[in-house]
Amino acid sequence: MAYVVKASPRRVSRVEKPDNTHVEDAVFRSLVGASPRPVLITNDRAQIIYVNTAWEHVTGYTLAEVIGKNPRILKSGKTSLKIYDEIRKKLISGQQFVSSELINRKKNGRLFNLYTMIFPVSVGTSMYYVQIFEDVTIQKHAEEYRSTFLKTAAHDMRTPLSSLAIMSEMLALHSPNCSKEATDLHEEVIRLQELATSLLDMREFENGKMILERVPIDLGALVKETVDTAQGSWQDHLIEIESPLDVFADADKVRVRRVLMNLLDNALRHASESSPIHISLKKDDSNALVSVKNHGSYIPRDQRKDIFKSFYKIGTKSKGYGLGLYIASEIIHAHGGKIWVESRERNPYTAFHFTLPLVSGN
Predict the structure, then answer these.
(1) DSSP letters for 258-293
(2) Considering only CA atoms, which of 211, 200, 276 is closest in space to residue 241?
(3) Inter-CA distances, 73 with 16, 56, 70, 109, Å
(4) Are strands 126-135 and 214-218 parallel, antiparallel or unpaired?
(5) Residue 134 carries which DSSP code?
(6) Mean pLDDT along residues 43-56
(7) H helices of the chain, where?
(8) DSSP for residue 337
(9) CB-based contacts of 41: which residues, under 8 Å, 6+ apart?
(10) Helix H or strand E encompassing 127
(11) In this predicted structure, what is the pLDDT of residue 320?
């Protein structure tokens, strides 16, 4: 979109008009016209003076139909007015505008999603505004389809998995001849239940709809509860806790327990045989710091930037789906905290740390 603005000449691109105007115009139209990205140019009165073939293809309008018109002919009413205000402010100050996402309307009435860049260009004494955009409608629809699929698949999995979990547990308890197989089956069912929950969480995160029920929680008590639960499944490893008294965080207890379980499970799976796991809890003036450390594992530096991405798996020991650290990261960031990893190759160890805001006055 372009606007009638007075841009600061010190902040814009300046092009001196050469004498060979016709040659310059021919070169310009050849280069811009062949661009695969849609390009629109307006004058300082917000009148369209040029669009390339890619722009015509996306919008359905021809150059002849839009010449002299205001780009608001594409306005759909679906884009926030705050974005248009931001565009105006940027161009007034002579800066370029790069958007996160806009929604425009084609000639046939259909909406399309786009990322756009708009920048002012000074040619002699005249000011022009160039818009280049990328149509991301297909990607947007694919994201929406994926989100719907995740929700449907996760919900459809939950009911049969709950029944199967109960049946496999009863089979393990009451059928000695096949107790090992039943126990293995039960563990796999639990993993699938965790996957279903993770998929629903993932959809919440991506849609920005995570709801936190924040209350003052005793982090020391929550750490101990979580360790007691994990210790029952991992009796080969001693889990040590270092925690001061009275560390209360302003957080969602259920979500933070999920973070602790994910980090503990990750630490236990990758620790050397029978080595201890160490959990520490500290606090400063405004944050609680929780650390989960194992021994025997090392994460190469070039992999650390990716470990909090969805479906990323560390090594080959993990039986999970690569969502645990991603979910932990999203939950901590939603609380306004930070999460990071440190790892050492010599006498190897890996430690995950995260912070949460303390309750005021704690």
Answers:
(1) HHHHHHHHHHHHHSPTT--EEEEEEE-SSEEEEEEE
(2) 276
(3) 31, 13, 6, 11
(4) unpaired
(5) E
(6) 92
(7) 21-33, 53-59, 63-66, 81-92, 137-174, 179-206, 219-233, 253-270, 301-304, 324-334
(8) -
(9) 48, 49, 50, 51, 128, 129, 130, 131
(10) strand 126-135
(11) 67
Report phi then psi at 225, rounded to 5: -60, -45
Q: Which of 76-90, 222-236, 330-344 has the lowest mean pLDDT?
A: 222-236
CATH code of the domain made up of 9-135: 3.30.450.20
Q: State the Cα–Cα distance between residues 124 and 95, nearest whole angstrom.
A: 18
DSSP state of 72: G
Measured distance CA(135)–CA(79) in Å, rounded: 15
Instruction: Please tell me the distance from the alpha carbon of residue 255 to that of residue 206, in angstroms, as a whole number.
Output: 16
Q: Is 143 helix (H, G, I), strand (E, B) or coil?
A: helix
Among 65, 218, 52, residue whose Cα is nearest residue 133: 52
The CA–CA distances, whole Å, from 282 to 46, 86, 211, 245, 289 equal: 58, 42, 26, 10, 5
**What pLDDT score does 73 carry?**
94
DSSP string, 152-203: HHHHHHHHHHHHHHHHHHHHHHH-GGGHHHHHHHHHHHHHHHHHHHHHHHHH
Q: State what percent of residues in the chain have pLDDT above 70.
A: 85
Count of all residues that appear for the chain in the document: 362
* CATH architecture assigned to 211-362: 2-Layer Sandwich (3.30)
What's the rounded Cα separation, in Å, for the pair 143 and 335?
25
Kindly report, residue by residue over 289-343, the tens digit of the pLDDT: 999 999 988 898 888 888 998 878 776 555 667 888 988 999 999 999 999 999 9
The mean per-residue pLDDT over the stretch 349-360 comes to 93
Reported as a single tens digit per residue, the pLDDT across 147-185 is 677 677 776 777 777 777 777 777 777 776 666 777 777
Reply yes or no on whether the pLDDT at 3 is more than 70: no
- Alpha-carbon distances of 109 from 59, 67, 74, 79, 105, rounded to whole Å: 10, 19, 9, 15, 6
Task: Answer for the pair 78, 85: CB distance below 8 angstroms, yes or no.
Answer: no
| C-alpha to C-alpha distances, 32 to 28, 110, 122, 129, nearest whole angstrom | 6, 26, 17, 14
Mean of all residue pLDDT scores within the chain: 82
**Confidence bin at 7 (pLDDT 50/70/90):** very low
What is d(CA 213, CA 311) in angstroms, rounded to the nearest whole number? 27
Q: Give the β-pairing of 111-123 and 13-15.
A: parallel
Q: What is the pTM of this model?
A: 0.57
